[in-house]
Amino acid sequence: MAEPTALTTAQIRSVPKVLLHDHLDGGLRPATILELADEVGHALPADDAASLGRWFTESADSGSLPRYLETFDHTVAVMQRADHLRRVARECVEDLAADGVVYAEVRYAPEQHLAAGLTLDEVVRAVQDGIDEGTGTVAAGGGRAVVVRQLLTAMRHAARSREIAELAVAHRDAGVVGFDIAGAEAGYPSTRHLDAFEHMKRSNAHFTIHAGEAFGLPSIWEALQWCGADRLGHGVRLIDDIEVLDDGEVRLGRLASYVRDRRVPLELCPHSNVQTGAAASIAEHPIGLLARLKFRVTVNTDNRLMSGTSMTREMQALVEAFGWGLEDLRWVTVNAMKSAFVHFDQRLAIIEDVVKPAYAEALRG
Ligand SMILES: O=c1[nH]cnc2c1ncn2[C@H]1C[C@H](O)[C@@H](CO)O1
Ligand SMILES: [Zn+2]
């Protein structure tokens, strides 16, 4: 697809990026975790920011999704008070803007933030207050504006998905643009949550489903054909339905064909997939082939803390592994913006007024 380039980290950071799959509880600053844990009396596995950051990336590097997910105990523990949720959300917006992100959908599971007595509505409002504050700080700093929206996640193993879907719809005019399910995939099929998805559809609302990460094609098939997901969280195992023959000919199975024909957006998260064992390495990550085959590929961080990553780092890795250039980065960015859950006119405005002019300028050098 692309001729080899030598894009620098600074160049990649400076171009506009769009992020559809980023967990709020997977992106805290280690220094903030230390401060908040001290306030609430939560014991942490390390006592300085650098060691704590290392602990998260090393523990998440387990090759297993369930073990990867255990690390969230320490972030969720410090996100139980309204002021703490507000701070984490504000810092998230600031960090994304500093990474050159112009539009992001940030997700978390409200049901995991009720331990100190907040209601589900209070959780969503506290996060929104933080997003508004962060957006304001970024605007005041004079940099490029960032638009951040919430996705509300329900945990697959729990039984609150219908309630969370209703919560997402109730807050649709107050910063929430969609719904998701996450958590351990094997053993917890998406079809357990059909009533939640039906509620979203009946409300003309959008949702994505984590599928095809720790479990393969049946999970992707269910997410699309039983649940009606608008996008796939990861979807990386779609590669199991694609055959590359010795002469280079590529054959798509029926599910892979459907996904490509219908332009189903794939929220791919390269470093996270390597950590959970869904891909062996970045160089062997299916994103290279999926992009070549023109699937609706998007690039995402998943959990910036657990993967020690950023949009710039994810893109840099793809530039190095697959020789991607600015045209490829623009392509995944436009793909992501087209697949966003905000209204069409807002998507178009960001593509036309922000993404395209900045890439045109970067391409002129
Ligand atoms: O990559 C993931 N797969 C499945 N679940 C995930 C992933 N990353 C984070 N989560 C879970 C852990 C969080 O506590 C929850 C809500 O953000 O979503
Ligand atoms: Zn995720």
Automatic annotation (TrEMBL):
EC number: 3.5.4.4
Cellular component, GO, one term: cytosol
Keyword DNA repair: no
Cofactors, names only: Zn(2+)
Pfam families hit by this protein: A_deaminase
Key word Zinc present: yes
Annotated Zn(2+) binding sites: H21, H23, H210, D302
Transmembrane segments: none
InterPro entries: A_deaminase, A_deaminase_dom, Ado/ade_deaminase, Metal_Hydrolase
Site annotation Important for catalytic activity: residues: H234
Cofactor note: Binds 1 zinc ion per subunit.
Adenosine deaminase domain location: 16-356
UniProt keyword annotations, A-Z: Hydrolase, Metal-binding, Nucleotide metabolism, Zinc
GO molecular function terms attached to this record: 2'-deoxyadenosine deaminase activity; adenosine deaminase activity; zinc ion binding
GO biological process, one term: purine ribonucleoside monophosphate biosynthetic process
Annotated substrate binding sites: H23, D25, G183
Active site: E213 (proton donor)
The reaction(s) this protein catalyses: adenosine + H2O + H(+) = inosine + NH4(+); 2'-deoxyadenosine + H2O + H(+) = 2'-deoxyinosine + NH4(+)
Enzyme class: hydrolase
Similarity comment text for this entry: Belongs to the metallo-dependent hydrolases superfamily. Adenosine and AMP deaminases family. Adenosine deaminase subfamily.
Record function comment: Catalyzes the hydrolytic deamination of adenosine and 2-deoxyadenosine.
Protein name in the entry: Adenosine deaminase
Source taxonomy: Bacteria, Bacillati, Actinomycetota, Actinomycetes, Propionibacteriales
Underlying gene: add
